[in-house]
Design goal:
Elements lengths: L5 H19 L5 H14 L4 E6 L2 E3 L2 E3 L4 E6 L3 E6 L6 H14 L3 E6 L9 E5 L1
Parallel strand pairs: 5-6
Antiparallel strand pairs: 1-4, 2-3, 4-5, 6-7
Helix pairs in contact: 1-2
């Protein structure tokens, strides 16, 4: 059985995100884009978990602090979705935290509130 690399998974997600954005356009709530992208990823045959809880481990205790990854695809790529005026350092810090907590290497920070989606996508490497 063929196993996709992180980059192949990320490229597939980017393509599906562009399809969603092309059909919906900017200006909707983040939750609408999340549901539509989740649907497209499932339809494409990829394994995806929505709202994956990420506990924080501090010394010997595990804390459930309410951290949730928007989408985790193929247990490899963290996808954090936004619908904001502009991505900023807090958004980057958030996805870096998820990558670190889950020991993942590749994340996609996607802001759907842009005219051209390619301008709203950021690949983040841990």
């Amino acid at each position: 059985m063929y196993v996709m690399t992180e980059n192949e998974v990320a490229n597939k997600i980017i393509g599906l995100s562009m399809e969603v954005h092309r059909k919906l356009g900017p200006g909707l709530l983040e939750s609408a884009y999340k549901e539509c992208l989740f649907y497209k990823i499932v339809k494409a045959g990829l394994h995806v978990i929505k709202e994956k809880a990420m506990p924080l481990v501090f010394e010997e205790i595990k804390l459930d602090c309410g951290y949730r990854i928007d989408l985790l695809v193929e247990n490899k790529v963290v996808v954090e979705l936004k619908s904001v005026e502009a991505l900023n350092d807090v958004h980057l810090a958030q996805i870096l935290t998820y990558l670190k907590l889950g020991n993942f290497h590749l994340g996609l920070l996607i802001n759907f509130n842009v005219t051209l989606l390619k301008n709203g996508i950021r690949r983040v490497i841990n």
